[in-house]
From TrEMBL:
<dbReference type="Pfam" id="PF00196">
    <property type="entry name" value="GerE"/>
</dbReference>
<feature type="modified residue" description="4-aspartylphosphate">
    <location>
        <position position="52"/>
    </location>
</feature>
<protein>
    <submittedName>
        <fullName>Response regulator</fullName>
    </submittedName>
</protein>
<dbReference type="InterPro" id="IPR016032">
    <property type="entry name" value="Sig_transdc_resp-reg_C-effctor"/>
</dbReference>
<keyword id="KW-0804">Transcription</keyword>
<dbReference type="InterPro" id="IPR011006">
    <property type="entry name" value="CheY-like_superfamily"/>
</dbReference>
<dbReference type="InterPro" id="IPR039420">
    <property type="entry name" value="WalR-like"/>
</dbReference>
<dbReference type="InterPro" id="IPR001789">
    <property type="entry name" value="Sig_transdc_resp-reg_receiver"/>
</dbReference>
<dbReference type="Pfam" id="PF00072">
    <property type="entry name" value="Response_reg"/>
</dbReference>
<dbReference type="InterPro" id="IPR000792">
    <property type="entry name" value="Tscrpt_reg_LuxR_C"/>
</dbReference>
<dbReference type="InterPro" id="IPR058245">
    <property type="entry name" value="NreC/VraR/RcsB-like_REC"/>
</dbReference>
<feature type="domain" description="HTH luxR-type">
    <location>
        <begin position="144"/>
        <end position="215"/>
    </location>
</feature>
<feature type="domain" description="Response regulatory">
    <location>
        <begin position="2"/>
        <end position="122"/>
    </location>
</feature>
<keyword id="KW-0597">Phosphoprotein</keyword>
<keyword id="KW-0805">Transcription regulation</keyword>
<keyword id="KW-0238">DNA-binding</keyword>
Length: 219
């Protein structure tokens, strides 16, 4: 796995590089600005780009803008965005363009090495990894949506775990239920959110984006 790291904090940037190299992962370049990140992504063509949300010169949304632009240039690029705290507008802006190969984690998650590496590998494999705290806050802000109110408590739990990027088997393990039960809950979620019987993956993405976008509008 070839990785580019874009982070303006030198300690975190080098710490991430050391951690990933210790796991036999290939960190091909690092950058301390969003512009430099795009340059090295174009040059090295990594499999994954890890970007901080807030980078110079304004320390607002440069990292998110770079992530969106990098994906525009290379739709197959996996992107893992790191943020110091939950910023729902940035999360939904990144994810609205499609969730395959995308992750949004709080920086504190990096210290939980196994969880961080699991998220990285999931994103690199084309999956999704959204920090549980991001999901929890966005879901709380979405509760006024009339369609979301149709969901049972268990269906809310399933949708929350779907938003974190977990597959059916992982959700079943987390909730101590069978795969069949999870499948039944997901079908019910699709019905209650008025998602037509189309491709299963597309409806799964639509269900997650429905409440993420609703959280952005209401936040």
């Amino acid at each position: 796995m070839r990785i580019v790291i874009a982070e303006d904090d030198p300690l975190l940037r080098e710490g991430l590089a050391l951690l990933l190299r210790a796991e036999s992962l290939d960190v091909v370049a690092t950058a301390d600005t969003a512009d430099k990140a795009l340059e090295v992504i174009d040059e090295h063509k990594p499999d994954v780009a890890i970007l901080d949300v807030r980078m110079p010169p304004t320390h607002t949304d440069e990292g998110i803008r770079a992530a969106v632009e990098a994906r525009r240039r290379r739709p197959d690029l996996a992107v893992l965005v790191l943020s110091a705290y939950v910023e729902q507008t940035f999360a939904t802006e990144l994810l609205t363009g499609g969730v395959s190969g995308l992750g949004y984690l709080l920086k504190e998650r990096v210290g939980r090495v196994e969880q961080f590496l699991d998220a990285l590998h999931r994103v690199a494999s084309g999956g999704t990894a959204i920090d549980p705290e991001v999901v929890a806050q966005l879901f709380t802000r979405s509760r006024q949506d009339t369609r979301l109110e149709r969901l049972s408590p268990r269906e809310r739990e399933v949708l929350t775990l779907m938003a974190e990027g977990l597959g059916n088997s992982a959700i079943a393990e987390r909730l101590f239920v069978t795969d069949g039960a999870v499948h039944k809950h997901i079908r019910s979620i699709f019905a209650k959110l008025d998602l037509s019987p189309a491709d299963q993956v597309d409806r799964r993405v639509a269900a997650v984006l429905h409440y993420l976008e609703n959280a952005r509008v209401r936040g």
